[in-house]
Amino acid sequence: MFLGGYNLPELFINDSIFNLQSVFLGLKTCIFTFFFVWFRATLPRLRYDQLISLCWLNLLPVAVAFIIIIPSILISFDISPY
Asked: What is d(CA 54, CA 12) in angstroms, rounded to the nearest whole number?
């Protein structure tokens, strides 16, 4: 996830001696790291066999259903993604 790198939003103007770009990049990095650690800590840890079971029994049928359902909806309602 790139998140714009060191580029500032247009409402910040970098006319000062103080380099706002490095501060902004550090702030984005800290926020992303906080949410990544928070998300990882709140999820239950699964054993390898539980993870394989989840993927084969739950996620694979949902993915196959999406592969069948979404093009069917697009064709039936004549919705072109282009």
From this structure: 46
